Amino acid sequence: MEKLTVNKADAVKYYNAASEDTKEVLRELFGAEAFKFDFRSIKTYADACHHLGMSEHLLTGTPNCDKEALQMASAAYKLMVICKALNNGQQYDENGSTWCPIYWFYTKEELEDMGEEKRKAKGIKLLSAANANTAENSGVRCAYTLYRCANTFANSGFPLVLNSEEKAKYVAEQFEALIFQCYGIKVKEEAE
Fold first, then answer.
1. Are the beta carbons of 80 and 136 closer than 8 angstroms?
2. Residue 11 and residue 63: Cα distance in Å, rounded?
3. pLDDT tens readout for residues 108-117
4. Buried (b) or exposed (e) across 135-152, using 16+ Cβ within 10 A?
5. Strand 143-145 and strand 152-154: pairing?
6. Do 129 and 138 form a contact (C-beta atoms < 8 A)?
């Protein structure tokens, strides 16, 4: 009898795109363990592209384009691909909810009251913003729509939507630099 070999990455790619009946057959053939997804295995944009079975396409601009806007758009594109990979085909949790990575913004006075030692222990970074009393002044934009067929709130800025709180926290930590790049937020260099 001739032996059949299958590349695991290909099997997982087809499994993710398969109907539930086909998934059941694949689990029977290869075992359910072969298709378990550990979202922490996605540590980079390249990992996300590989998981989704796509090439690492990057946004490119023209010679006279706004380079900063292109970098922000590229970061947003990468984050959307990463979130899609982390969600592994399921945008919502079992209750129909989604989660977003969030950051807390403190005023200058709150940071002074907290003190440097406590701030560093919490891992709080200082952002290059003239005034961080409101999201608008710290470079993060939010949307608010009311009474347009339904109430819609997007108070966290750009919707990086994940299907669990754990994944949202993971994105906030693992892809922090990319999120800051997306918003154009700069972290102040501190003297040690």
1. no
2. 41
3. 788 888 888 8
4. eeebbbeeeeeeeeeeee
5. antiparallel
6. yes
Six-digit token string for 46: 């390249």
pLDDT, tens only, 136-189: 434 344 444 444 444 444 444 456 889 999 999 999 999 999 998 988 888 766
C-alpha to C-alpha distance for 48 and 160, rounded to whole angstroms:
14
Coil, strand or helix: which one is 162?
A: strand
pLDDT in tens, 35-70: 888 999 999 999 999 888 888 988 887 888 888 899
Q: Which residues contact 165 (CB under 8 A, 6 or more apart)?
A: 99
Q: Alpha helices, DSSP H only, in the chain?
A: 8-17, 20-30, 45-52, 67-87, 108-114, 116-122, 165-174, 176-183
Using DSSP, state whether 9 is helix, strand or coil: helix
Identify which of 42, 50, 53 has the alpha carbon closest to the alpha carbon of residue 167: 42
Q: Is 127 helix (H, G, I), strand (E, B) or coil?
A: strand
Return d(Cα 31, Cα 145) in angstroms, integer. Answer: 47
Tokens of 26: 């694949």
Q: 35 with 15: CB under 8 angstroms?
A: yes
